[in-house]
# Entry
Amino acid sequence: MIRKRETGFGEKSNMSSQRTRREFIRDMGISAAAAPFLFNLSSPAFAKEVNPQQRKRLIVMFSPNGIVPKNFWPDEKGSNFTLKESLKPLQSLKDRTLIIHGLDSKIRGDGDNHMRGIGCLMTGAELFPGNIQGGSHTPAGWSSGISIDQEIKNKLQKDPQTRTRFGSLEFGVLVRDRADTWTRMSYAGPNQPIAPIDDPYQMFSKLYGKMKDRESLKSILDDLKADLKKLRKELSKEDQHLLDEHAQRVREMEKELQVDTKLIGHAVPELDPGIEEKNENMPRISKMNIDLLVSAFAADFARVSTFQFTHSVGNARMKWLGVEEGHHQLSHKPDSDKDAQAKLTRINKWYAEQLAYMANKLASTPEPGGKGSLLDNTTIIWTNELGKGNSHTLSNIPFVLVGEGLGFKMGRSLKLRRVPHNRFLMSLAHSFDHKIDTFGNPVFCKGGALDLS
Amino acid sequence: MSTRLNTFAFLLTLSIFSLGSSSLSSDEGAGKAIYNKSCASCHGQNGEGVKGKYKRPLVGEMSIPKLSRYIEKYMPEEKPELIQGDDAVKVAKYVYYEFYSPIAQTRNRPATIDLARLTGVQYQNSVSDLVHHFRWIPPRAKDSGLVGEYFNDRTPGRKSRIKRIDSKVRFRVNKDQPAPKELNPNGFSARWQGRVHAPKTGIYDFIVKTDHGMKLWINDMREPLMDRWVKSGSDTSFKKSLFLLGGRDYSIQLEFSAYTQGVRNKKNNAKPVEAFIELWWKKPHGALELIPSHYLQPNRGAEFFVGKTTFPPDDSSTGFTRGTSISKAWAEANTSAAIEVSNYILDHLAELSNAKKGSKDFKNKLIQFAEEFAERAFRRPLKSVEKKLYIAAQFNKAPSPKLGLKRSLIMVLSSPRFLYLNQAKENASPYEVASRLSYSLWDSIPDKTLLRAAKENRLSTPEQIKEQALRMLKNPKAKLKMRRFIHHWLEIGIRGELSKSKKLFPEFNDALAYDLEESVVKFVESVIWSKSSNFKELFESKSLYVNKRIAKFYGFPEPKGEGFEKMEITKGHRQGLITQPYILANLAYHDASSPVHRGVFLLRNILGNILHPPPEAFTPVAAELHPKLTTRQRLELQTRPQFCMGCHEKINSLGFALESYDAVGRHRSKDNGSPIDESGSYLLPSGNQQKFEGARSLATFLRGHEEVQTSFITQVFHHLVQQPILAYGKDTPGEFRRQFKNDKYNIQKLLAEIASRSALEGIINFAASPTSSGKGPMAF
# Structure
């Protein structure tokens, strides 16, 4: 199993004073994993919250290499529109869908369009100069700003009413084990990329590992108590008190373990064992990770998530669609190449199917403690690094929204003209009552957040 | 004078261990009568104290002559002149033998060897060594430094252009320093690897300074501690902290590339590159420095398990750390740790167990692993019932072999058979002897050699055990345990960071403070681990460990190299431990010397006297109030009241002998414009006053004084064994001291002696040691 973790850009050099081990562990953020951990699995907000109906959730789903515009964008604007081939899988969700055409990434500077395509997509900020050379332009490093999902997560985590166990979850599907500008979309801050977890088993262990540990622990307590009892008889009176104390602690632990998985509020998903991370397993891994995401939302482990299919320049070979060529390779073919256009349309249709599966799964999961479904309180945004693969344009970047979490007016096709995507990112924050005046490069925030209600 | 303070003063008592009979002599008979008449109303019939009068038990460590003088001077509080001369001696004798002296205390309330669980430190070490039992430890390399390999490719690969040992990582190429001729000046990469030694347990900061891409791995070779392969922005210094257990050599690898990454583009590498990379660290309580070559060795080794679970502090109310209570926090920590260890093992299963998933013998291999793990954890072969309970039952009940293993591991690590040490059991098996030995010297489980000796029944005589102990002392784990003792004994770091007035001592900074700490530890270690290992050297040596920073600040001769150099310091009348700059500076205020801190330290830590805390906290009289007085004079003024002098007479007169050293431990000849008075004295157990003049004569006195040896022995014993020394017999300190003398005050032999004596408790009848703890047999 490949383990990935944040690549570790969190700490600025601070050479001052010594820290205690406790502070160190707290700073490292590993206290949740290591310090006494057994008895707190649910999210703090779960119990405290006044009105579950006011929960808001956001998912950002990413796919690479642009789309085929004529098979993607509806011709009409407004509520009366027809879904084109690539978006057909959303037919049953059409009333809950918002398609925004006309958002551009205006971010320039270092890096090629693929690098800026993914690196500035959620940050709205330039890349730092660096040592990663793209296919053209100057070399670049990481993004110089935080990404909007993390900005919103931080806002939610600050408030006990909205704080959850993880705050945000970063999923991937076949991202590949390489940390560079092309593989990272989410940023905790400047120069702090967050590695998505694409291995479902690793994500499972992050979400439910502790619960499994509890089960293991519970299973041995009876045997342990019996052995303590046996040993006690063999001790002198003076020494028995220590064992009595010990036995008392074990009994306390047992009691606390009884207060069990009820707090989790739902069944733990079962994963098919032994699914390897390889190209042909992409559909299965996608489904597994979507299932994990929905179950994590149902347990209120987090309210923000990213879901990154491969990476910028991703070259998945979707043989199950009858496409033998790699995705990136195909995306470079000219518009005149009918075969390539058809295949690219099919590839994006497959991504739309993943979106539909995710949305339907959320729609069929009741909102815990509240009315309606998870999708009523969740908005999924499907986006892309590029507007179009063969031109590498950063204009007209796809943004397809499903679900009512952010209170936008759904069931329409919106046509904008050259609006910087920073304004769209701001409107996401505003939906979470996070009224920021700018996000990313302020030059592109003129006019403020887009009104999508 | 206030009654409360006066009575309290009686408790501020000092003394030593000595021997005496407990039958009542005629003197004591008379003493008893006087006591009952004039003392019992406040102190109780048997010195147990009286509520509302003087409620604390009348116990202490003054000798009889000291006690008599005390009574003459201060008791009874309303009428100190009442008991004088012979009468005072009689009362003193009675009180001393009946309940006051340590011996009487032992007799009345015998110290016992209590069942103890592993302390936090012992737990951490034990689980780390348990996991490492299944791995390979390479021998220590002869060279120091790391293997440096240099490549013309943009990532370090297999075929290096240069391969050499680099004593440190400090590499720089620019206009003035062109790249080595074997390398392509327009782009190259490099890799350094080997091991880095962690001298103590704590948080290490690793810092890589570079203007290009790099990755750094430490211990865990699967996942980099720092991945800066993407160069981004203008930062050139990157830091990451890591908790490491001391005494171990951790694998390290650093990769570096002075190329652009991503898509190859000739433009980027058309001209010579400028590049640098350096590897720095900051040890716990250490200054920021390039990792010195003596901490590096060029061969790699296996990963160490280092637990992340934090344990609550262990009880140290008796002056030494011991695991004598099971708090909720401890139980939770220990459970978390058990799960952490089991998860780690499952995560490294193929490597540790040699079991291949899907193979036929997968389950058997796991069972085998579980058995070996349990044996190592329990430190002895398993009984058949234990095999059933801890291994078979867990595998049988679990849905999969891996879960079975996990349950078995959690069960073993939660078991009292792993968690407890029984140091008192009679007829202990050789395995139990091995256990006691390894925990006293290593704070960890026995190694293979020790277990083999147990198996072959070669751990039954003191000689056999001492031989093992002397072998074990060579292990870094023993050095680590003694390093912790040095810290405890010399109060290093207990007041937090050592800092001084910026106004008076602008050059005294954190880096210097860390150097001083390292210097004094090096000094003590150099004595302990030298061939003669002579305790007296600690008070006789005129050597100091000096580096450039220390030399500059204190005006010592400057060493040639970058690190520490041992040198004789003739200036400043320094001699021995007590004049080490760290000790003097640590026992001082931020702007002035403190004879009180120094005196208390000498009394308690060096002479082994018991001092109770002062009745209330006093702030030293501000210097501004008496602009003409020296520190000594101000203190004499402030502690002049009789109720202070009960203790301060002793404290001050020891501390005054070190008045020639200021707040930072620099030698001075004047204080506040007046010449220094460095005369001091100490009341000997015999009742005679020992006088000295300054540091050297004080050090010379301490060097030969028996109380100093007894105190050292007692403190070392408590640190190693974590049980009260008197529980091993009332004359145990005396026995050790006599043996210490025979061994020419050899500290290493003393350590072996202590380990051996405590390991054999309840097995061999020591002539002079009637068993003090009536323990039943126990099947550990």
Summary: The first helix of chain A runs from residue 21 to 28.
